[in-house]
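Hi W., the iron/sulfur cluster complex you wanted:
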Amino acid sequence: MKLEIDGEVVEIEEGATLLDAARSVGIEIPTLCYHPALEPFGACRLCSVEIEWRGGRGRKKIVTACNYPAEEGLVVKTKSPEVVEVRKMLLELLLARCPGEGRIQSLAREYGVREGEGKPRFRLELAAKKDEAEEHCILCGLCTRVCEELVGVSAINVLGRGVEREVGTPYKEPSDDCVGCGSCALVCPTEAIKLAKNIFPTTAEDEREIENRFLDLGAGSKRDEALGVYSDLVAAKSSVVQGQDGGMVSALLVAGLENGFFDSAVVVQRGEGYKAEAVVVEDAAGVRSASGTKYLRVPMVSKIAAALKEGALEEEEKGGKSKSKRRLAVVGTPCEVRAVRKLEREFPGAEITVLGLFCLESFDYEGLKEETRRRFGVDLDRAEKTQITKGKFIVTAADGEVFSCDVRELEGVVREGCPYCDDFVSRLADISVGSVGSPDGFSTVVVRSRVGKRLLDATEFVRGGEFGVDKSEIVKLAKLKKRNADRKFAEILEGLEV
Ligand code: SF4
Ligand code: SF4
Ligand code: FES
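Structure:
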């Protein structure tokens, strides 16, 4: 079809928007909430243009170019005085909301918004109430859409109305859904999402900052591309705790509690059937009750945040004397470890020892239950054991019969968000544990920080001896996970380049 934009005849395929048509001939229209990989949202209205129908007796209309379909014979003006007025007004409003936001400031300058008056006309109470430099969110909704449409998690939404509108989690609680993938931070045109509370977008810079801390404070730690920063890599088996893959997670926790490195630990415990839940344990018996590997993602972060808050409250009530839930150990998958590292910043008085697990992906409980029933005729809730090893998902039924399938065949029941996680080895934990790389019956332990080293030194364990860690096996999976996640991120980045 043919239409006219700023006096130029443009030919474009049916289904294209006015923005596509303009960009196809190099006509720039400013956008804030548009991203080619996401559904149009029409939130910022900065892409407003004027349209007129040929033979439409001068009937004109202002529409948003990012979601208005191109039509045969349409006459479009992208810089008419009316359009410029609309954009100026929108920029004034945005400036009132986020006076310190660089991108808005530069657009406002481009449109001469501050010229003459010296100050914007509007001033929102919200911005006035806060420190002016604090509000950076321009409510473009890119973060919420990338989280919902691409990552598939929907951890955040635009909440509230009018001047109270903001991006946040349901009930403004720490999110158990956010996988810390950082996709929202990639698309956010401002700094706002990095400052958001209750979600945990982790960027490459965040990762580097924490790893540098390990390097600075660590005992001879070195940087490894696939394994992250570490000082020690050992195949280990607990000499006191029995357990799947050497029982090292339980052994480390017991040692930490008994040596007073922490007073309690948040761990995942099997509940009814195969279901699992996060619980706070305070002694060796509690730790033992939670041993064993679970392949489900359970609401953990809210539990950790609640424990930290409770600890802070107790401490305050007892005049700074009680530290119980402020000295906490946490066992989590890489995404949970990222969340803990962000929560840590909100509780500066807390001492958190982070034990990370190796994790390729986790599963949805209902989905996994249905798959094991369909494939093997096994009720997951009554199964004796599940294990993922060497690319196989293995279920031992209640009668001892063993079934297995390739883990890749379970792709359909992998939790949303996992494909966007690029961390296999819990790079940000003080100490990481997993079965990959060690002989049967042993765990691979990766010591990263001084805290992790102290913990391993206090733990009784047997080394794998001549059967050391086969690092190449870990590197293979770490690279595979990173490669897959990079492919997903490329989709988002490609969209940003337009
Ligand atoms: S946090 Fe960033 S991406 Fe999300 S709505 Fe605000 S400005 Fe847009
Ligand atoms: S970090 Fe990922 S999962 Fe969390 S809110 Fe952002 S996009 Fe969603
Ligand atoms: S870019 Fe079109 S409405 Fe925001």
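Residues 172 and 389 are 38 Å apart (CA to CA).

W.
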